[in-house]
Write a structure and sequence with these properties.
The complex is a heterodimer.
Chain A (H helix, E strand, L loop, with lengths): L17 H6 L4 H11 L5 H11 L1 H4 L4 H4 L9 E3 L6 E6 L2 E9 L1 H6 L1 H17 L4 E11 L7 H19 L3 E8 L8 E11 L14 E6 L9 H4 L20 H16 L3 E6 L4 H12 L3 E5 L12 H6 L5 E6 L4 H10 L3 E9 L3 E6 L2 E7 H6 L28 H9 L8 H4 L10 E3 L6 E4 L6 E7 L2 H6 L1 H18 L3 E10 L6 H20 L4 E7 L3 E2 L2 E2 L3 E10 L16 E5 L10 H6 L12 H16 L5 E4 L4 H13 L3 E3 L8 H6 L6 E5 L4 H10 L4 E7 L3 E3 L6 E2 H16 L5
Parallel strand pairs in A: 4-5, 9-12, 17-18, 24-27
Antiparallel strand pairs in A: 1-2, 2-3, 3-6, 4-6, 7-10, 7-11, 8-10, 9-11, 12-13, 14-15, 15-16, 16-21, 17-21, 19-20, 22-25, 22-26, 23-25, 24-26, 27-28
Chain B lengths: L2 E5 L6 H12 L4 E4 L11 E4 L20 H10 L3 E5 L1 H8 L6 E3 L7 E9 L15 E8 L3 E3 L2 H10 L2 E6 L18 E5 L5 E4 L17 H14 L1
Parallel strand pairs in B: 1-2, 1-3, 3-4, 4-11
Antiparallel strand pairs in B: 5-8, 6-7, 6-9, 9-10, 10-11
Helix pairs in contact in B: 1-5
Classes of the chains: A alpha+beta, B alpha/beta.
Chain lengths: 745, 233
């Protein structure tokens, strides 16, 4: 179709200048492309629409070519990336719908509202597809605890996540929290939501049919969040604080009403297509529904419910006011749908219709404010093959190069009280993790487990990434993030199904950052392929950088697994005294990039532990079998901090200690106990069962080693002072509450 | 037992309450919309569930206490019918004047979700007959504003009449400020009205009624109500 040559009549809009183009985050080349696409100078409203659709956040222009490498398919996948959320079958006519998304930039500027609206946005993505949300998770990264802003950000983000999810009424069941100075100027808030839907009742964004009413649902439109997505597509300078007005304000009460009203109109078969208004609000939702359905959309902004008077077309199109939806309605159902929305006290307004001309036409006060080709708005967004420098792979560090500065017992006690390893109870006790009455495994274990309806099925859920590994070696780090998620799901007995990824990186215009992004994606792709663990949804957050200093590369992986029967799942705590403690998997004593090296020896160096994906799969399958056959009484994966930290976590969960044997003669003790070799699990088995388990492991080609026996109230190691579980718990539980109460880091 | 669960805009533990009631008596409760003016005929028990009615944007429970259905709830209580308010429901009952006192922001100024220990102070109310007096039960809380307060006269009356039925205690049942999770006056977790037919409590017994969820200590409350109604019938 040839674009119209005449510029729409717009009485109050300024001429487009290079400064105005730059203010919209568009390059001169991108502006030139807009000009070519539409064959004339855009109006200000049109420029705003393009900036909203073509920014990094909405268009994935820097990452798109690389994301294609990710495996997205499996027989159980119903919907991969490209919709509001991914959908995976869990059998018996049910599916799980899930996605993770970042709200990093807004959370740094205004932590409470930034985090709250991050939760709100991801919940909408899930219930837009017809699913009732059953759980939320998150992954948070903050700066150095000693940095003056960190405490304020932790308090605000945690309160915001809780404030939204608790009121909305979804349990926040898991997540991860970490600290590093590289997040001083950019905290990370990645929120994940999970819902359940009947496979025959999934709703999509694709509009069908000409002349169908386009309906606006939910809260009114205000001036909040204008250009939010553009803000999130630029790095911060010294003026980050001045961007507060671009952060939206969340209203979980309205969202709860919107959920109930949406599910009710869906159940009454009123909906042809539905899309939530997230980033770039009305613009993005309307364009996506039209473009996916090969249809045009005509919007009459005079019909849009507004919270403030005198809003311009430009403001309405770019507002990111929360708790709104756009829907294409079955015309014969209009009265029924409207009555449902009125019952819930929400706005319902027919604001436009679908058209056959594939144009996006916006009118306001009788004037045409925008008239653009709808397909090109999305499809013709720039795609960049940005230059990248592959990260140099570091030389592995030998255990002999690391001199232990203290005893094993002292190192363990110290590690358990460090910001990254300590208990995050202070955080997750502010989240209602029990609402809906289905939380089988609460936060603090390997993966959360939530029951589906009345059971016996359940979902296992986790979020994982080890940014220091990704920084040292993006490829291995990307692999490891996926493998750890897979391992955490396996450790509770679940069959890993699929992942959502949230790729957080710095400025992609810098080749070394692009190199991290490309390396991590390759690693994720390789691991997902090897583990049959496809990526079904995700989000990319770039420009996480302040004054030229980027965050650690942080590709967060949200994993979802299925338990056929929640009665067959394992927890980490030692169940009884006198049981055998076994280590499954290969141990070489890998100290490079370990927490022992960083927090005990004060060095961040070496290569991260490599992940042998074939071994990973073999051992995970074996562990799942043990849990199914009830041969393991407790299971815990070995990750940050290594074997001794993992043993301590098992002990602290129930207060039972363990009598440990010495490390293998050929290995340095600190490397054995604190090395972070991958693909390992700790299990306990009743003493009469342990021989059988060991024989079974050997038969399956799984390395196995007896570490000791559960006993007493302390961990004991030959040649070390006894480590009382009570003291370890005090260290473990003490740091975060003390820090948040104001004690120096 | 015929039970009704009132759903306000922003209620969010109504399904949890409904499940606990169903497990206790085998019958599904009726869900009643806040804008209705009547309870279903023959309702024995009305439950005001947990949540954030109207977003709790004014005072917790203040708007819900003035919802159309509340006239019917008041009349039901006046007739001697049972009313159970959990969490936000307790806040609503206080705002509606069906129970005395008020629930303020937690002393630590943070939302808290965790298991707590409650001492059942007496077993001779319709709500507590499933427990023994002095029994300690483990029940979760999930609230930001559960810090009970009342004036001295009211407190003296509550104590004197034995209307404090649940208190936050240590696992062994001892009163200890460390275990008074939100700083409530006299460690009050739940109270009844004078005729003992209206109970408000902050913790969520409805979330501890199944073995799979880690504890069944909440069952006694629902089983006790069923038992009471069966005896009365």
């Amino acid at each position: 179709m040839t674009p119209r040559k005449d510029r729409p009549v717009t009485s109050n809009e300024p001429q487009i200048t290079p400064d105005l183009v730059a203010e919209h985050g568009l390059t001169p080349e991108e502006y030139q492309r807009i000009h070519e696409l539409i064959g004339r100078e855009p109006t200000l409203t049109e420029l705003g629409i393009f900036s909203a659709m073509w920014n990094e956040h909405c268009s994935y222009k820097s990452s798109k070519v690389h994301l294609r490498a990710l495996p997205t398919d499996a027989p159980w996948v119903i919907q991969g990336p490209g919709e509001n959320a991914g959908v995976v079958s869990i059998g018996q006519g049910l599916a799980v719908v899930f996605k993770m998304e970042s709200h990093n930039h807004p959370s740094y500027i205004e932590p409470y509202q930034g985090a709250a609206t991050g939760v709100g946005g991801i919940l909408r993505d899930v219930f837009t597809m017809g699913a009732r949300p059953i759980a939320c998770l998150n992954a948070l990264r903050f700066g150095d605890p000693a940095h003056p802003k960190t405490r304020h950000l932790v308090a605000g983000v945690v309160a915001g996540i809780g404030g939204y999810g608790n009121s909305f009424g979804v349990p926040t069941v898991g997540g991860s929290v970490g600290f590093h100075t590289r997040y001083d100027g950019n905290c990370l808030v990645n929120a994940m939501a999970v819902g359940i839907v009947e496979t025959g009742k999934i709703f999509y964004a694709k509009a069908t049919g000409v002349g169908k009413p386009v309906v606006y649902l939910g809260s009114k439109t205000g001036r909040d969040g204008i250009h939010g997505a553009t803000m999130a597509s630029a790095e911060f300078g010294a003026d980050a604080e001045e961007k507060r007005p671009t952060v939206q304000v969340g209203d979980p009460f309205s969202e709860k009403l919107l959920l109930e009203a949406c599910l009710e109109i869906m159940a009454n078969d009123c909906v042809i297509a539905i899309q939530d208004m997230g980033a770039a609000g009305l613009t993005c939702s309307a364009v996506e529904m039209g473009a996916k359905g090969d249809l045009g959309i005509a919007l009459d902004l005079d019909k849009v419910p507004c919270r403030e008077s005198e809003m311009s077309a430009y403001e309405m199109m770019l507002s990111e006011s929360q708790e709104r939806m756009l829907m294409v309605l079955r015309p014969e159902k209009e009265a029924e749908a409207e009555a449902i929305f009125r019952k819930w006290g929400l706005d319902f307004a027919v604001v436009g219709k679908t058209t056959a001309d594939r144009r996006f036409v916006v009118t306001h006060g009788g004037e045409v404010m925008a008239d653009l080709p709808i397909k090109e708005l999305g499809d013709q967004a720039p795609v960049y093959h940005r230059a990248f420098d592959e990260t140099q792979r570091p030389v592995p560090l030998l255990p002999t190069e690391v001199v232990p500065p203290m005893t094993l017992a002292d190192a363990l006690e110290k590690l358990l009280g460090t910001p990254d390893l300590c208990s995050k109870r202070w955080v997750w006790e502010q989240y209602d993790h029990l609402i809906l009455g289905n939380t089988i495994q609460r936060p603090g274990g390997d993966a959360a487990v939530v029951r589906i309806d009345e059971g016996p099925k359940g979902l296992a859920l986790t979020t994982d990434v080890t940014p220091r590994y990704c920084e040292a070696d993006p490829f291995e780090g990307g692999k490891q993030a996926v493998a750890e998620a897979w391992r955490n799901l396996s450790a509770v007995g679940a069959r890993p199904l699929a992942v959502t990824d949230n790729l957080n990186f710095g400025n992609p215009e810098r080749p070394e950052i692009m190199g991290q992004l490309v390396g991590c994606i390759r690693g994720i792709a390789e691991a997902c392929r090897a583990l049959d663990f496809p990526v079904v949804s995700g989000n990319v957050s770039l420009y996480n950088e302040t004054n030229g200093r980027a965050i650690l590369p942080t590709p967060t992986i949200g994993g979802v697994g299925l338990l056929e029967d929640i009665a067959h799942s394992a927890t980490i705590g030692f169940q009884a005294e006198g049981e055998s403690l076994l280590l499954l998997g290969e141990t070489q004593g890998w100290l490079g990039q370990s927490l022992y090296l960083r927090d005990i020896c004060g060095a961040e160096e070496g290569a991260p532990p490599p992940v042998d994906l074939a071994a990973e799969r073999r051992i995970g399958d074996f562990v799942r079998g043990l849990i199914r056959d009830r041969q393991a009484t407790a299971v815990h994966d070995v990750s940050d901090g290594g074997v001794l930290v993992a043993i301590a976590e098992m002990a602290m969960a129930t207060g039972i200690g363990a009598r440990l044997y010495g490390s293998p003669v050929m290995m340095l003790p600190h490397a054995f106990w604190f090395g972070e070799d991958q693909g390992r699990y700790l299990i306990t088995a009743g003493s009469e069962q342990s021989d059988a388990v060991i024989a079974k492991a050997r038969a399956a080609g799984v390395p196995v080693r007896r570490l000791g026996q559960t006993a007493g109230d302390a961990l004991t190691l030959p040649g070390e002072r006894p480590m009382l579980v009570k003291i370890l718990s005090e260290r473990f539980e003490g740091w975060l509450p003390a820090y948040m109460a104001g004690q120096p880091a | 037992m015929k039970s009704a669960v009132v759903v306000f805009p922003g209620s969010n533990r109504e399904r949890d309450a409904a499940r606990a009631l169903r497990l206790a008596c085998g019958a599904e409760p009726q869900m009643v919309w806040h804008a209705d003016r009547q309870l279903p005929d023959g309702t024995d028990l009305v439950v005001l569930p947990g949540g954030f009615s109207y977003g709790d944007y004014l005072r917790c429970g203040a708007i819900a206490a003035r919802a159309p259905i509340m006239e019917a709830v008041r009349a039901h209580a006046a007739r001697g019918g049972l009313v159970l308010g959990i969490c936000n429901g307790f806040q609503i009952l206080c705002e509606a004047g069906l129970l005395p006192g008020v629930l303020m922001r937690n002393a630590q100024l943070r939302f808290g979700c965790k298991d707590v220990y409650l001492r059942v102070e007496r077993s001779d109310t319709p709500f507590t007959r499933g427990y023994n007096a002095g029994q300690v039960i483990r029940i979760p809380i999930a609230h930001g504003e559960g810090n009970y307060a009342a004036d001295g006269e009211t407190l003296a009356a509550l104590e004197g009449d034995g209307r404090i039925v649940f208190r936050y205690t240590a696992p062994d049942g001892a009163l200890d400020p460390k275990w008074n999770v939100n700083g409530s006056t006299a460690a009050i977790a739940g109270i009844v009205n004078e005729p003992h037919n209206v109970l408000g409590l902050m913790p969520h017994p409805e979330n501890h009624v199944e073995t799979a969820l880690g504890s069944t200590d909440g069952r006694g409350l629902f089983a006790g109500i069923v038992d009471h109604l069966a005896q009365a019938a």
